[in-house]
Amino acid sequence: MKIKLAKNMGYCFGVRRAMNLTFSCLEQRRGPVYSHGPLIHNRQALDLLKSKGLRDWAGEGPGGSGLVIGGTSESESGGSPGGGRPNAPRDLADTTVIIRAHGLPPESEERLRGRGARVVDATCPKVAGVQRLVSSQAAEGSEIVIWGSEGHPEVEGLLGYARGRGRVVSSPEDVAALPDMGQVLLVAQTTQDQDGWPEMERAVKRRFPGSSAVNTICRATVNRQAEARRLALESQALVVVGGRDSGNTRRLYEIGKKAGLPTLAVEGPGEIDPAFVAGLSSVGLVAGASTPLWQIRAVHQKLAELARSGGRTPQDFLARFLRALVLSNIYIGLGAGCLAFALADILGYRQPGFYFSLFFFFVQANHLLNAFLDRSSARNNDPDRAAFLAKYRKVLVVCGIFSYLMSLFAAALAGPLVLCLLLFSTLCRVAYNFPLPRIPFAGIPARSLSDLPLAKTLAVGCGWAATLTLSLPLASPPVLAWDVGGLKITMAACGCVFLNLLCRTLLTDFEDSLGDKLFGTRTSVTLLGPQKATKLVSSLLALWALYLIFLKIFVVPASPILLLLIPGPLLNALALRRLVKDSVVMGGYKFDLALDGQFFLTWLLALAWQSARPAA
Q1: How far apart are the C-alpha atoms of 596 and 349, rounded to whole Å?
Q2: For labelling alongside 197, which of 165, 343, 395, 604 has CA 20 to 30 A away?
Q3: Phi and psi, residue 439, nearest 5°
Q4: pLDDT class for 476, splitting at 50, 70, 90?
Q5: Dihedral sign (CA 210, 216, 219, 220)
Q6: Most confidently modeled of 47-56, 278-287, 463-472?
Q7: Which 3 state secondary structure label does DSSP give 445?
Q8: How many angstroms separate the CA atoms of 76 and 139, rounded?
């Protein structure tokens, strides 16, 4: 079964902005942080924000005399500790209240500011633009007709800005029931169905000749609806991912049903009935604008699992084998072993297979350790890997312990200095997640080294480069002489490996950032944003090319060490192009399979170079 993805996936700009503002408020809070109503219409994302400390602001009490926070009435005049009412502060000076992405009536915002609350406006910029339009036109005497859903938070906010001059209609039939009005402006709830706008505009202009209309449906909504229609024509069924209260998600579901296509609306992978996709050759996957990428990816991987489990062809068996190879970290271990083999072979070491074994065991064990230490992040960023780790936990733990002991045994055979190097590397990895005092770093309390921005990216690049390249000159007897020539080659190799691993880690950061700052370490993507992170990787690839030229001309013009540079930039550039072109939800084991293929290509090039050398 082929899974066809919509091009527009994940949060729209307005939702992402609201989530990022909220996350920043929670990190830097000095008092309680409330969301005035549901921040966005996605239960799973809101549950995660609540686990970080976000509280519900249920609204204001009758007549504005009190506040209802979490369902408890708090009178402005306060109450006795032993009475039926809790003590309530007369002001909210230490309280942060976040205006939800759908917006808020202006009078509600004014009351909050009047009580001294710190108000953070997370209203979607598109919605804020409609609010300004409604406010200005109502001030000039226009009656505002809002095409939307009665009671929807965005519509309620727009009615507030209309200052009593607003009317809500949900269909062209509702227009006929409107009272006679003079100057009329028609606007739309930003998540309405684009196809229904022309008919609604005609109905208003027939009823009120001379009226004006501004199509305020968000472009992100229009694009998602267009993708749903396209996939409805290309697929045998449609799966829609998003919150049940999300209006724009509901529109996507309606598009599939109107197309006569079997359509399933889900909030998570557990809601997918295997019978729904049984026998299908293709299924389309779309998502609402308030659906996080980690939620989409969980559904995507569930569909992929159902597709694999139903296949009995050799290709299906091969796919399951390669998936197990990647998720068990055997594949990255083999890749590290191949890189070590190529390095030792090119430098003239007579037993490169020994270093293949050492680094295969060491890297496989360390990546298994990383996977189990970061499993809480993996549950959302990579649910397929998390499910694999949970299913085969005992086997993988035994495998990891065995691999680590084998790597120490091999290191001891190589010499005491190599053994100390591997032990030091392991100590650094454990310290990476070791709890630290809450030290402010750029306004953020760092609880461990992993909380520091770009810590993972630099740690992986430096760790691999140092361990791989220093193990050879530290071996007994040393493979390389500690002279100027040997140091040049060592430093050149170290630079090659560092740039290689730095770019690779930055690319995997795109996958690790699916949690939208809620899970795992602070990756380069969550720190810089996808566009700046993409530019950073592109710049590093350009630096890599310049480094290659520099080595060739000035450092090691005759050394084949440059073979280490050839596959890396090419495959990293292709991986970057894939991430830019397609949604990051297409990552997973296939992405890792392709990206880490560079190490195997390096090994093949080293073998080819050795076979082409004239016999000594």
Answers
A1: 24
A2: 165
A3: -95, 125
A4: low
A5: negative
A6: 278-287
A7: strand
A8: 33
**DSSP per-residue codes, 374-442:** THHHHHHH-HHHHHHHHHTHHHHHHHHHHHHHHHHHHHHHH-HHHHHHHHHHHHHHHHHTS----EEET
The three-state (H, E, C) secondary structure of 118-138, written as one string: EEEECCCHHHHHHHHHHHHHH
CA atoms of 281 and 570, how far apart (whole Å): 34
- Three-class HEC string of 276-335: HHCCCCEEEEEECCCCCHHHHHHHHHHHHHHHHHCCCCHHHHHHHHHHHHHHCCHHHHHH
Which of 586, 563, 572, 588 minimizes the C-alpha distance to 534? 572
pLDDT at 67 (0 to 100): 41
The CA distances from residue 215 to 104, 135, 205, in Å, are 21, 16, 14
- Tell me what pLDDT residue 317 has: 82
Which phi and psi (to 5°) does residue 311 adopt? Answer: -95, 145
Cis peptide before 477 (omega within 30 of 0): yes
498's CB contacts (< 8 A; 6+ apart) are: 461, 462, 464, 465
Catalytic residue (choose from 154, 156, 267, 305):
154
Using the predicted structure, report yes or no on whether residue 453 has a pLDDT greater than 70.
no
pLDDT per position as a tens digit, 7-58: 888 888 899 899 989 988 887 777 899 999 889 989 888 888 888 889 987 5
pLDDT band at 428 (very low <50, low <70, confident <90, very high): confident
DSSP H helices in 513-596: 524-528, 530-550, 567-581, 589-595
CA trace torsion 80, 84, 86, 89 (10° rounding): -60
Kindly state the average pLDDT of the residues 371-385.
70
Identify whether the C-beta of residue 506 lies closer than 8 Å to the C-beta of residue 530: no
Ramachandran area for residue 517 (φ above 0: left; ψ -120 to 50: alpha; else beta): left
Q: How far apart are CA 162 and CA 397, in angstroms?
A: 62
Question: pLDDT tens digits, residue range 429-448?
Answer: 777 666 655 555 444 455 56
Known catalytic residue: 107?
no
Among 153, 48, 172, 144, residue whose Cα is nearest residue 105: 153
The better pLDDT of the pair 318, 308 is held by: 318
Both tokens of 114, joined, read 């009047």
Q: Please name the residue ranges forming H helices in 82-216.
A: 106-114, 125-139, 153-162, 172-176, 197-207
Q: Give CA–CA dist 196/182, Å, rounded.
A: 24
Q: How many Å apart are CA 96 and CA 112, to the nearest integer?
A: 10
Q: How many helices (H) and strands (E) does the chain have?
A: 25, 16
pTM greater than the 0.85 cutoff: no
